[in-house]
Amino acid sequence: GAVVSQHPSWVICKSGTSVKIECRSLDFQATTMFWYRQFPKQSLMLMATSNEGSKATYEQGVEKDKFLINHASLTLSTLTVTSAHPEDSSFYICSARLGAVSLNEQFFGPGTRLTVL
Amino acid sequence: GQQLNQSPQSMFIQEGEDVSMNCTSSSIFNTWLWYKQDPGEGPVLLIALYKAGELTSNGRLTAQFGITRKDSFLNISASIPSDVGIYFCAGRNTGNQFYFGTGTSLTVIP
Prior knowledge:
The complex is a heterodimer of chains A (117) and B (110).
Chain A: E1 4-7, E2 10-13, E3 19-25, E4 32-38, E5 44-51, E6 57-58, E7 67-73, E8 76-81, E9 90-98, E10 105-108, E11 112-116
Chain B: E1 5-7, E2 10-14, E3 19-24, E4 29-37, E5 44-49, E6 55-58, E7 61-65, E8 71-76, E9 85-93, E10 98-100, E11 104-109
Parallel strand pairs in B: 2-11
Antiparallel strand pairs in B: 1-3, 3-8, 4-5, 4-9, 6-7, 7-8, 9-10, 9-11
């Protein structure tokens, strides 16, 4: 149980285009999903918290107009990188919280490698 | 945002040796989690700790929630090649904020 999938697993795009990444909880409902960004050999940096049916909460320094997050259902959250540039190239990982807030266990997707040319 | 201090940053050990890594925070945490990340993959939860002093095992892995609630350690006994990867601690503080450690890269030499 507690499986989280991401699609696509990797994507290469031209500078200026937009890319959508999907995050799905396959066998549970996730009222809260999280989006992280990870640079090579570095830790995960939280970008935003996605709550089903409401606006996402962005971390300081993360542009909400550039990284659009939609959490339309209890099993799906999407991250759209708009007008992507080479500096947006990174490993993007989502996670979903299972259970009550007090437990706060997060289960991660396999990640999406974005390369912007 | 804040990150937890994790040490060591990297480890190179012989197969069969035991491994120990720890994570410290300047503030009190209510939950400690340990994850392993393989290259190109997302982190996988290894152990979750919810009470100060709690000692939990998962196979050859053992983790403890520090009494001060500001630290946690992870031990791996009798390491094997497939233990290679990056290990992250993570935790939730009393303000319900979730943070990741800086990671420990483990290399096991056969």
